[in-house]
Amino acid sequence: MTAAGRSARDGMSIGAVLARLRPDFPDVTISKIRFLETEGLVSPERTPSGYRRFTEADIARLRFVLAAQRDHYLPLKVIREQLDQADRGGTPEVVVAVPRPPRGLVAVPTEPPAAQEFAPRPELRLTREELLARAGTDEALLADLEQYGLLRPGPAGFYDSAAVEVARTAAAMAEYGIEPRHLRAFRASADREVGLLEQIVAPMYRQRDPAARARADEIARELAALSVGLHSLLVKAGLRRVTGN
């Protein structure tokens, strides 16, 4: 029996599980855990009143799933197959969760981000299911993000890595009561900034000289970094006015 007089077999609440996972997986949310349960990757018991009760085995499964997604980019279908293999007595691929330092609530850079952060990355093609799993959000939030123009799938219906970050950030803001409809100003501001940068580099891209186009790429990245840095500095200055610090 525990100090509270309850049997240890009663397990842990979803909030307690979240607290156990957060040190190693800072991006995990209650919505993500519920989603993984919906997908059949973990099956906590329910109390007569309907509350979830997780065991140590359930937490181990969640760690395996989260590490497989984060460190190996495995889709849920593959992860499910590995867990099924383990349930049958097999040995799934070992996925080690590497601890990460907890994130602060607000991280405002003190200088502009590096231009290299805006360089093209290897294309990532995610299905809707994979996007929801990686972002740890639900279908309702994703639908709202698309309705208000914050997310759009590509022509073939797939999403990229940027979509994951947008959905994850929007989900975090939703926990503070900021809904996707409130984020339309962010979309409009970003579009205006991109339009301004386009006016500067578009003439260079129209040149046939490969060196000019390469220079246009470099300038676009540098201006994007400066633009994001300026935006962050203005927000930081505004917060100082609000908080008086």
Enumerate the strands of the largest sheet in spatial order, edge to edge or round the barrel. 1-2
Number of domain modules: 2
Q: N- to C-terminal separation?
A: 49 Å
Compute the number of helices. 9
Backbone shape? globular
Give the helix level as a range of percent: 40-55%
How are helices and strands ordered from N to C?
HHEEHHHHHHH
On the 0 to 100 scale, the average pLDDT is 80
Tell me the major beta sheet: 2 strands, antiparallel
Unreliable spans: 1-8, 94-110
Key words describing this protein structure:
2 strands, disordered N terminus, globular, 2 domains, 245 residues, Multidrug-efflux Transporter Regulator, Chain: A, Domain 2, mainly alpha
Q: Which helices and strands appear, and what pairs or packs with what?
A:
Layout (H helix, E strand, L loop, with lengths): L13 H8 L8 H9 L6 E2 L5 E2 L2 H17 L3 H12 L40 H8 L3 H9 L13 H14 L9 H22 L4 H34 L2
Antiparallel strand pairs: 1-2
Q: Overview of this structure, please?
A:
With 245 residues, this protein is mainly alpha-helical. Helix content is 54%, strand content 2%. It contains nine helices and two strands; from the N terminus they run ααββααααααα. It has a two-stranded antiparallel ribbon. α5 (128-135) crosses α7 and α8 packs antiparallel against α9. The N and C termini lie far apart (49 Å).
